[in-house]
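Example 3.2
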Amino acid sequence: MILPDSVLWIDFMRAKTPQPIKQLIGPYLASRNSMLCEPIRFEVMRGERRADRQKADTLLSAVPMLRTPALMWQTAEQYGQTCQDGGLIVPPLDLLIAAVAVAYGAEIITFDKHFEFMSKSYRS
């Protein structure tokens, strides 16, 4: 199970993203193992222009949704504190996405370095 981060969805849907990047991203988004979570959907849809919202909604609605785990907020809080103790300030939505991914055993696919740093910080 994979969880493509919002940056992949945004880059894939953005007209100005170079075609080689879209070709790199596309297989992850189209994979039968690809999932979506509510924080990622929120990040993508929050930034969509009015003219593109219906297209984005249609695309995202076709992807299975990992529902928010009951302890997501507490888990994200713990991750944030651990990262902060290690000198890393992580955006709150990235902490929520990480909490969902861990709860479901999903691998996050992203270009965002926060997840790499978060993973190293949390393992320390």
